[in-house]
């Protein structure tokens, strides 16, 4: 999707998996957590976003590697993706397992972080300096926001989110005729309902995201009719 990269990209390997972080990833993460009065917390937020999304994409990539594929990871302004070339048969079951290997471990990590927040609340106040206790609490809250809140949204059956891709794999596994078409139809329905609900509760930034996804899926459906 992003070609060969630029000199400004952060590139590394983890578990033999190539990882590239495009500069716009850091920019968007900072924008989402921006507070000009607490730049220290903005930095903390960006690091939590980086670690959480990388953890998520590593789940996809490691599962793909276990099936014999050769994945790579790119983190960019809309989050991240783990890509590979399916040079051998990618069955619906394999596709489903690779898809769920990102959000489910991330959600489990988020729930574990909830437990950590509850367990360390009193302990941190008693045993840490006030500033350290504050940073610990914010770190756990940020991780919960990302790994629980974002994971649950990502599991909604809306393409191209993981939930939408998992739904498409399930349709294919059930032998549904044209699983992509059915996944797109469900994506439009769920996307529209989610958009309306988010606007109702005044969660505008996320509502705009789901509105964009809904429009894209409507366009994809129309393109398949031509």
From TrEMBL:
Please list which residues make up the signal peptide.
Answer: none
List, in alphabetical order, the GO biological process terms annotated in this UniProt record: proteolysis
TM region(s), chain numbering:
17-34, 41-69, 96-120, 132-153
- Which one Pfam family would you cite for this protein? Peptidase_M50
- What's the protein here called? Peptidase M50 domain-containing protein
For this UniProt record, the keywords arranged alphabetically read as follows: Hydrolase, Membrane, Metal-binding, Metalloprotease, Protease, Transmembrane, Transmembrane helix, Zinc
Q: Which cofactor does it need?
A: Zn(2+)
Q: How does it sit in the membrane?
A: Multi-pass membrane protein
Q: Which organism is it from?
A: Schlesneria paludicola
Q: Which GO terms describe its molecular function?
A: metal ion binding; metallopeptidase activity
Per the record, the domain of life is: Bacteria
Major localization listed first in the record, in broad terms: membrane
Q: Does the keyword Chloroplast apply?
A: no
Task: State the InterPro entries in the record.
Answer: Peptidase_M50
